[in-house]
TrEMBL record:
Residues 5-35 form the Putative zinc-finger domain. This is Anti-sigma-W factor RsiW. Belongs to the zinc-associated anti-sigma factor (ZAS) superfamily. Anti-sigma-W factor family. It holds the Pfam family zf-HC2. The keyword Chaperone does not apply. InterPro entries: Anti_sigma_zinc_sf, Znf_put. Keywords: Membrane, Transmembrane, Transmembrane helix. Gene3D superfamilies: Anti-sigma factor, zinc-finger domain. It comes from Paenibacillus pectinilyticus. The chain crosses the membrane at residues 85-109, 129-150.
Length: 169
């Protein structure tokens, strides 16, 4: 087995292969540890992207709450407090993300798939350079995604801490 099927793994996970191609990939995966390991790495990344998507999905009435929160924090009394200068841009970013999520909607999964391919290509390129360090690169990509999720959670906590009360999310 000299012909690895790395280029087809992403399409395989997205169910974009023909039945024949799919069978060829599965036959190869049965015999090739390297490609099986890569598939499991890619699946891990895809799961993290999927989880990230769902953890930042905007609930009902979220936009109104953000707009209210911005209005609340933009009053002179609150602006005079130093910490709100940091909070305001964070809320703006969050609001922007929400709008993007709402507007992008169903396109986001396709986008995730593109991100996955970009991530895969990065892993592949760095993997060639670093030899056996592919797992480290994959780990770093995963870690970045986790950090993005953690950031969004901390922003939510900051919103709650800012007197954004009655928020049920
Ligand atoms: Zn292989």
């Amino acid at each position: 087995m000299s012909n690895h099927i790395e280029d087809q793994l992403s399409a395989y996970m997205d169910n974009e292969l023909t039945e024949t191609e799919r069978q060829q990939v599965e036959e190869h995966l049965d015999t090739c540890l390297a490609c099986s390991a890569l598939l499991s790495d890619l699946s891990g990344i895809k799961t993290q992207v999927f989880t990230a998507y769902h953890s930042i999905e905007a609930p009902e009435g979220f936009e109104d709450k953000v707009i209210n929160a911005i209005g609340f924090n933009a009053t002179p009394v609150n602006v005079s407090k130093g910490s709100n200068w940091l909070l305001f841009p964070l809320i703006s970013v969050l609001c922007f993300i929400t709008i993007v999520l709402v507007v992008m909607g169903s396109y986001l999964f396709k986008f995730s798939s593109i991100m996955l391919k970009v991530a895969y290509n990065l892993i592949h390129v760095f993997g060639d350079i670093l030899g056996s360090h592919t797992y480290i690169i994959a780990g770093l990509v995963g870690l970045s995604i986790v950090l993005i999720v953690a950031s969004s959670i901390s922003i939510k906590h900051m919103l709650k801490a800012s007197g954004f009360k009655g928020a049920n999310w």
